[in-house]
Structures are given as structure tokens and as C-alpha cells.
Prior knowledge:
Pfam families: Cu-oxidase_2, Cu-oxidase_3. It comes from Ramlibacter aurantiacus. 9% of the residues lie in helices and 36% in strands. It contains 7 helices and 29 strands. The chain starts with a helix and ends with a strand. The structure holds CU-O-CU linkage and copper (II) ion (CU). Residues 439, 504, 506, 509, 514 line the site of copper (II) ion.
Amino acid sequence: MRKDRRRVLRQAGSAMVALTLVRPAVAGGADRDSDVDVHIELRAARDQVAVRPGRPTEVWRYKGKLLKGEAGSLQPSDSYLGPVIRLRRGQRVRIELINELPEPTIIHWHGLHVPDDMDGHPRHAIGPGQRYVYAFRVLNRAGTYWYHAHPHGRTGHQVYHGLAGLLLVSDEEEAALRLPGGDQDMPLVIQDRTFDDDNQFVYPAAGHGMGASMMSRGGGGRGMGSMMASMMGVLGDRILVNGRQVQALDVDRRARRLRLLNGSNTRTYKLAWNDGSPLTVIGTDGGLLAAPAHRKFLVLGPAERADIWTDFANWKEGESPSLQSLPFEGGMTMGSGPLPDGSQFPVLQFRIVGSGPVEPARLPDRLAQLPPVQASVAINAEHPKVFDLTMGMMVWGINGRPFEMLQATAQETVKLGTHEVWEFRNEGRNSMMGMVMAHSMHIHGLQFRVIGREIADRFAAAYRTVQPGLMDEGWKDTVLVMPGERVRVLVGFEDYPGLFLYHCHMLEHEDSGLMRNYLVKA
Ligand code: C2O
Ligand code: CU
């Protein structure tokens, strides 16, 4: 602890604001390298990256350095995304964030079950030149998690400019299945971006909550356009995969695990194979399902993940299967901007190379042990806590109130060691001109189960075009709540007391108020 503090002082220099003192979260302390299995340094800094042909793009990105253990290569990726961090369940990890940006930032480990001061709540944001030391034990199941910036009012801006990366956890249960590994295990981060004529990102939202100086200094445009972008969300007009504009990916005729992350700020995708082949889903946000599930198309809201098992032997050499995003029908409002919701567009094209004989790949029909979903364990099973997703006076909110960073009165209080049923209602209460958009609701610090959905009559017709593509199975940390819908989830508060967040993961909605604290009381 002492040592940490001295290091903070030394690195911070004289121009520092408040010191961030970090309580080690690993039993027995994590002050020394001998106490941890993996030690990583992540610097958040400006950089230039060739995202697409032509001039390099100015980005903000995480640069990693491995100081101890193994955690994947941590090589600077050839895109703006942060390094892929590979961890094993049970490992003790120490990660140091160094802020070399011109404004405050903090990292949230999306999906990880960690103590509250390790979770990247915006109240822990650090100023330029400061360092935040994370130390925690990996308690999560094997799965596709991720990390990204989370300063209040600037999350959309920072993530759009590149501050995000994947964090993959493995465990023994997963290893025993012998799923496709090595280069057959392909993480695919799907994002949309708009570029100007000079190849630079265009991010139109103004951002909220950081004060006028911040807004005029840098990121956002102003005026009506940026107001609308802040309200509706930002949609780009180009699709990037793993931080690059990809033409086609060459694959041979073997089975692959495609780990899809929707890392877009606001865009929801309705993914399908162009030839109508079903998608085989083996995992969701919190890891593997009990058994593979099949979908004609898959609706993936911002921050949701889907692990897709695909046997490319189903296609012949020279064929080009592609993942498309299908249009949203029935006038559903999913965002605005170019590449409108009404269009169908390619997300990623593959090209089958090599004709050699391929052994038929087999996917086990039992994948993982999942506890049954029993709403009766909740202390409020009959009377769920209701969260109305609201909009008033050009700010989003929950139950009519926009985000309050520390306000004790705005917090939801729950008891450590209990389960509750929470219900998100997206019925356009207080909304401007009756506008209702989908919201991608994320709860920090835990994984939950979806226990039910209910749609209001007037939205039912449009909903039927989406409903077959929703994946509610397995552990989730983010759930899409469609216009007119009520979604119930079963949430358990285990191990860690403290202050956590839940919010819409459409980052412009989050930045403009659709976020709230919950307090877990010991
Ligand atoms: Cu991935 Cu609070 O967010
Ligand atoms: Cu939202």
C-alpha cells in the first residue's frame, strides 16, 4: 500500500489534482509483483493509426506492457483497439492505468465481477498524468469480456476515439470442450465510425457533465446537430471490424469460434449469414451456454457479446459467406444518421481458401453447467423494482432523474448476499413527442439472468420482426430493451459491497443521463 502511494506521487509530478489511493483488492495485498500472477501497464494516450487507406487517423488508444506473467501478447495491435488481454479464472491481476490524455479518464472492466473501487466508476476518474492501480482476482467464468473508458459525460467521445479492448477469460470447464483455439478462435469487435475527407473520426455529440471548457476545447461539435446526436446516439457510416476497415477475411474450411462484440457507441445490429445459414450461438456476455442455440438472425445491442461457432466446411473454396446486418422494420427507432436502420449492409465478409479434405468438426451438444433460473430466490420476486427509462427536457434518465454521481438520494440500495428482480420499462414515459428508442441496459459488477419480456400492444407488430433474434440465454451483463418493452432480470449481489452503476450502453444516452448508482450494503 505504502509503496503504491509513493509511486503515485513520483509519477504524478507537481501539477496533480487529487491523489487516487487504491486499496488492494487481492487477499494478502498486491503490493509486490510476487503477490500477483499477471501485472500489466496500460497507457491511455493519443496516437495515429492507419485505420483505412490514406492518411492515418488520430486516435486515443491503450498501449499495453506486460510486466509479469502471461496475458496474451499485449503487442500493440495494428488498430486503435487496446491489446487483447487473456486471463485465466482464479488469477490475481494487477493493472496500472496511466493517463496520458488531455482530460480525465478511467477504465471499466465490462462484465467482470470486481470490488467497487476496481470497477471504473466515473467517480474514480484520474486526471492527466495520474495513475490508477487496479488489483483484483479473476472470479468470472471463461468468456468474452472487454474494457473501455468510463469518465462521466465523456465515455462516448473516448470510446469512439479508440479507448476499448477485449479481455478474454479462460477456465477448465471451457478447456475440456476443446473448442476451436489458436487462430481458429477469432474475436471480432464490430464498430461503426464516420470519417471526414481527411480520414479523421467525426464524433458529433456534445458530451455532458464535464463543463463548458471541456466541450469547447475538444471533442464535440455544438448546436442542434450535436444536441440531436447526444440525444439519439451516434451512428457511423462505415463498419469497422477489430478497428479496421476490412475487405474480406481469408479462412480455411475448419470450424471457428467467432467471438462477436458489439463495441459500437449506439448501433444495434441484426446479424445474419447472407445465404440464410443459421447462426450457432455457444456463448453470451458471461460465457458459455448450457447447450448450443440456433438463430436465423441475432440482434446484438451495444456492449452485448455472442460467441458463434461456425464450421467453414459448410462452404466451398472460393465462396464468400458474409455476415450482414438486416434492416429494422416497422418504423422502429434504433438511432439516426447515415447507414440508416432501414438498410441492409455487410458487416464482415469471409473468403474460403483451400480445398483440402476437412475432418468434419463436431460441436459438443452439452457445453457448460448453468444453474437454473429461479426467480423465487429473489427477495422481491412478486414486486420487482421498476426502472422507467425516461426522457425529459433533452436529457435521458431513469425514473425521471438523470445521473447523479454521488447523490445518496438517487441510489438504489440493495443488500449484500441477496437476489432481486429488476424490471426495465421502455414505454416512452415523459418522452419528447412520444419517441421511444431501444436501450441496451448494462449492470456493473455482476452477471444476471433474463427472466421475462413483455411487449405493449401498440409495439407488438414491429417487435415480432426482432424478437426471434434476441438471445436471453446464459449469463448476461447487458440486455436490449426494445421500444414498448418490459424486461425482467434476476440480479444477485455477491461478495462486494459498495457503489456500482447501471446504465444504457448506448454511450450518448449514458453520457446524457441514462445512468444511475446502486449501493450494495453489507
Ligand atoms: Cu461497458 Cu458502464 O459500461
Ligand atoms: Cu439508451
